[in-house]
Amino acid sequence: MIRRIRLRAKRPRSLRSRLVWGAALLAAVAVLAAQTIGFLVLRSWLLGRVDQQLDDFVLPQQAFARDADPDRVPRPPNPGSVTLPSDFRLTFFDAAGHKRGILGGGKAPGPDLPDSTGRSHPADGRPATVAAVSGDGHWRIRTKTGPDHTRYVVALPLDTFDGVTSKLLFLNAIVLAATLTGLIALSRWVVRIGLLPLTRMERSAQDITVSDLSLRLPNTDPRTETGRLGTVLNTMLDKLEQALRERESSEARLRRFVADAGHELRTPLTSIQGFAELALRHEGRSSAERRESDRMIAQNADRISLLVDDLLLLAKLDKEPDYRRERVDLLSVAADSVSAAAHLSHGHPIRLGALSAGAATDEEELEVVEMTGDPHRLRQVAGNLLSNALTHTPPRTRVDVRVGTGHAGPTTGGTNHPGRISPSPPLPDGAPICVLEVADQGPGLSPEAAERVFERFYRVDPSRSHHRGGSGLGLAIASAIAQGHGGRLELETAEGCGSVFRLVLPEGGTAVPPASLK
After folding, report:
1. In terms of domains, do 355 and 438 share one?
2. Residues 127, 132, 136, CA angle at the centre, nearest 5°?
3. CB of 391 closer than 8 Å to CB of 346
4. Max CA separation in the chain (angstroms)
5. Which domain holds residue 342?
6. Can you name the residues that pair with 432 across neighbouring β-strands?
7. How many CB atoms sit inside 10 A of residue 213's CB?
8. Of 274, 296, 319, which marks where a domain is finished?
9. Is the pTM of this model over 0.90?
10. Which secondary structure element, helix H or strand E, spans residue 166, and what is its range?
11. DSSP reduced 3-state for 124
12. Does residue 310 sit in the same domain as residue 379?
């Protein structure tokens, strides 16, 4: 129980309570300071008026009577011989400091003065305040000098001064209490109005948490603190929603990848299993049937081996890509790929030319395009692009392979542009680049197919027949290798207008770290 009480005591107050009580405390300090200054000024002024009256009072010398003795010691005036202003009291002392008499009337008790003071008199030289003989009253006194070293004390009662100051203190206390009460009530209303945007943001945040993540906070005025907070929170919600969408998309791609990989592996495995069972059940087959069965088993085994190799290569490129850094001539890479694909052309005319706005011509001069990179991986990219063009276009379709240098832009490539598709981020505009293009004059791709052409296991052929292409990993591997060299792989296509696959690499051939590929 004690621990619970301590935890409750340490619990911080709400922002609204802290603002209200903070404003009340500041107002109380300000009002109290103003009242204190006013009280001190008024008190000083009233006391100064009394002191001025004491200073202005002068008892004439003729008022002092003298005895007939030789010493001629003056005596205090008789009570009826001198007329004093109202409320004044005079107390006379001789030269030895002994009280000789009192002059002045009134019902109030007089000042409490000693009967004998020696040569030191009260309020000697300056005004002073003394208590009354009885009661709670006070007197303001000042000592003045008479004839022959005699002294007399002029006194005025401070009843009016004490009454004014007491009433002023009482009124100040009432005003302070009323001010604090009204200020607390007004502060609660003002703070509630001021915190209304935060309250609305709180309700909107609850709705976002409970119902819909696409909702946004309404108050985003950059001129206010709550508006700037709302802007920051909306930006955070945008990023959170984007991250959730990317996560869902990644999970969907992973599920599709697993399903596609299973489908790709199941087909050759089913063929191998079928031919193996056929061989076991029918031992009396002819030699031609056994050769055909063995050929199909070996063919499907090769297909599985290639698929597994591609999957391992993609996993390696995604996790820890290892690229050699050598001087590579992209023109030689393109020439080797064209030479290797000649026997697979199926009547496709393949032309190797320089990079230009149009197709390659015989008059064009080829230039040596050197850069730093991995020659084996770059040849793999060029071979995949060329094989892709030969496989997915009709026979005798012209294929152009172009190599050259330029600067990243809308015409040469490397940057985002309408109609240009790439899974990799763009290069800086105007950066020097090396380009290898593989362009065909085939049927082209639809916008939907072009958006997914770089996905793993994606094939345009809906039947997913391996006779119309490989496993669907070639372009994904080529894109990963291009990004690993600091560049990217692009596609520009339209239905009926052919396709252009473009390998864009920075002129320096800088390889990016593995973390950026994920």
Report:
1. yes
2. 115
3. no
4. 178
5. 322-517
6. 407
7. 12
8. 319
9. no
10. helix 159-194
11. strand
12. no
Q: Are residues 315 and 327 in the same domain?
A: no
Answer for the pair 439, 503: CB distance below 8 angstroms, yes or no.
no
Task: Clarify whether residues 94 and 151 are in a common domain.
Answer: yes
* Residue appearing with tokens 């309250």: 199
Last residue of a domain, one of 319, 344, 379: 319
SS3 139: strand
List C-alpha distances in Å: 307 to 267, 319, 359, 479, 492. Answer: 12, 18, 35, 17, 27
Cα–Cα dist 308/268, whole Å: 12
- Name the burial class of residue 493, with classes exposed (0-12), middle (13-18) and buried (19+) by CB atoms within 10 angstroms of its CB: buried
Q: Report the C-alpha gap between 111 and 129 in whole angstroms.
A: 9
Instruction: List the pLDDT tens digit at each of the 518 positions of the chain.
Output: 445 545 454 555 677 777 778 888 888 888 888 888 988 998 889 888 888 888 888 776 656 655 445 455 555 665 555 566 677 888 888 777 777 777 776 667 778 787 776 555 555 668 888 888 887 788 888 888 777 777 888 888 888 888 888 888 899 889 888 888 888 888 888 877 777 777 777 777 777 777 676 777 776 677 777 777 778 887 887 888 888 888 887 777 667 667 666 666 776 777 777 777 777 766 666 777 777 777 777 877 777 776 777 677 767 666 666 678 888 889 998 888 888 887 766 678 888 888 874 444 445 678 888 888 888 889 888 988 988 888 888 888 889 999 999 899 888 888 988 889 998 889 998 899 999 999 998 888 888 888 888 887 776 665 445 455 556 777 888 888 888 888 999 999 888 888 999 999 998 765 444 433 33
**Please, are residues 129 and 139 in contact by the beta-carbon 8 Å criterion?**
yes
**Across-strand partners of 116?**
98
Quick one: tokens of 280?
């076991």
Q: Of 380, 420, 384, 413, nearest to 505 (Cα)? A: 413
> What is the spatial distance between Cα 469 and Cα 459, in angstroms, rounded to a whole number?
8
Whether 315 and 326 map to the same domain: the answer is no
With beta carbons less than 8 A apart as the criterion, state whether 335 and 386 touch: no
Q: Which residue has the tokens 């290797």?
A: 340
> Domain check: are 441 and 513 in the same one?
yes
Any idea how long the chain is?
Answer: 518
The C-alpha atoms of residue 283 and residue 218 are separated, in whole angstroms, by 79
Instruction: Tell the residue number behind the tokens 């197709």, with chain if given.
Output: 359
Judge if 232 and 284 occupy the same domain: yes
In a domain, 41, yes or no: no
CA-nearest of 426, 411, 430, 437 to 487 is 426
- The neighbour count for residue 143, using CB atoms within 10 Å, is 22
Please report where in the chains the tokens 């206390």 appear, as a residue. 173
